Amino acid sequence: MQNVLSSQHPLVAHKLTLLRDKNTEPKKFRELIREISTLLAYEATNDLVLHQTSVTTPLATTDGNELSEKIGLVPILRAGLGMVEGVWNLMPSAEVWHIGLYRDEKSLKPVEYYNKLPVDPTVSVCLILDPMLATGGSAVATVDILKRWGVRKIKFVGILASPQGIENLQNHHPDVPIHLAGIDQALNQNGYILPGLGDAGDRQFGTA
Ligand code: PRP
Ligand code: URA
Asked: CB–CB of 162/190 below 8 Å?
């Protein structure tokens, strides 16, 4: 699949297995979400643009590099919240812009309930953070919002996806790379990823 990167890192595979386990408690679940997100963000940012600078060490002045792009982290509420901390630690000057969407239980269509983006874009590259790409409706809606805002370089960083979710996001936004810890086989009749990990929001926030 073009533009879909499922991590091959052994640490990601190990942590994903712990995350799936139904006996993993919310505290551990949140830690694993944070750790996996950090590893995925490291992989997803390997093409950030740099410009040359110079730096003075205690011994001499030498060439250095500085990030040229202003990064925005865009967690989709609620479940994307748990992905922010680890990624933000890697890139502390990033801005964080929250988008609130929930899936209507019957139609499975995303409903927007929070968006405080300013009129003009303040960042040049956005990483959308959401652990689950199920039908793909929430991801497609979020990319729509960010493109309308004026951001052109957008990446989706998630933990698990279904084939349908990937197809939906790629059909609507083929220019958006999708970074994942794993790709599962199917969706059940309620739109849950199988075998999946259950409800990523409930498992983080203890609301199951
Ligand atoms: C979950 C998940 C995604 C969405 C994925 O959120 O965090 O945002 O579902 O499903 P989709 O690909 O079919 O759109 P949910 O609506 O359960 O809200 P929550 O995070 O607030 O629990
Ligand atoms: N949202 C979740 O939290 N889990 C799924 O499997 C699908 C959507």
From this structure: no
For residues 172 and 54, give the distance between their C-alpha atoms in angstroms, rounded to a whole number.
42
pLDDT digits (tens, 9 = 90+) for 168-202: 999 999 999 999 999 999 999 999 999 999 999 99
- Closest by Cα among 79, 84, 83, 155 to 110: 79
CA of 103 to the centre of ligand 1 (A): 6
Write the residue with the smallest CA distance to atom 3 of ligand 2.
199
Q: Cα 71 from chain centroid? A: 13
Outline where DSSP puts E strands in 139-192.
Answer: 153-157, 160-161, 178-180, 182-183, 186-187
Which one-letter DSSP state was computed for residue 50?
Answer: E
Give me the percent of the chain exceeding a pLDDT of 70.
100
Amino acid at 154: I
In degrees rounded to 5, what are phi and psi of residue 114? -150, 130
Ligand that lies nearest to the alpha carbon of residue 207, given by its number in the listed order: 1
Percent of the chain scoring above 90 in pLDDT: 98
Q: What is the DSSP letter of 126?
A: E
Sign of the torsion formed by the C-alpha atoms of 149, 155, 156 and 158: negative
pTM: 0.97
- Amino acid 1: pLDDT: 77
Instruction: Give the end-to-end CA distance of the chain in Å, rounded to a whole number.
Output: 34
